[in-house]
Amino acid sequence: MFGLETASGGADRDEVFHRERPHLLAVAFRLLGSEADAQDIVQEAWRYLRADVDGVENLPAWLTTVVTRLCLDHLRRSREVPQEPADMPEPADPVGGPEEVALLAGDLSEAITILLDQLTPPQRVALILHDVFGTPFDEVAHVLETTPGSAKKLASRARARVRPASAADADPGAARHVVAAFLKAAQQGDIDGLVAVLHPEVTRTADPQALPPGAELRVRGARTVVDETRALRANARRARVVSINGRPGIAVMADRGPRLALVFRIAAGRIVHYDVVADPARIARLHITD
Question: What GO biological process terms are annotated to this protein in UniProt (predicted)?
């Protein structure tokens, strides 16, 4: 999953950290649901990196582990930890089939984000790392200081809790019409057209790799989304409507495949949330077809 690096010098550390920073921020943001907290966690990981890490051979993997464990500690400290029901049955398939494993790969809607708060911190970490970022369960187990089998069970229990919010929430044909109208309006800079398909309280989340430096990872409100969409009009011109994990979405393609993807949640004919996926680990989890 990660390339092999050495931590032999400060300059090398700096280079690796700045290269990995968007991914680290994406992981922290998806785990915590707060951009400010994610920024703090990544900055704290930077301070860990300034210590003696000369024995670390795989620095990107080490940084991801540090960030994830810091997020785990933060979740345990700052939130009331949900308790696992004593009578909850053992998951029938702790690994999950392909459709289960892809549950959150491109769908981190506001509804699912709320449900994530109902998970225990280890469940949340197992689900996000494995299903969203494709981290193998042996690496998830290392982060959680448990066994791969236990990590699989944690992810399976988490899927069982968030599964209801993952169901498609609009007729595919009608949803594709809404997505196509959104893309057409974005390509033409049509403000009225954008407003017509956006819920007034629409939210947009995004991986850092999809945004200009300093842009917010979560924004709310149709006017804010319209202004941003107009500013990123060049991307819209290179985009097309596609199917993402069986649901209508938008992709901007590059020579070697999709560069970013927009995954939508639609209700009553309007877009209520969309997520801009650009982290390579997340993009790799999406099944994108024309």
Answer: DNA-templated transcription initiation
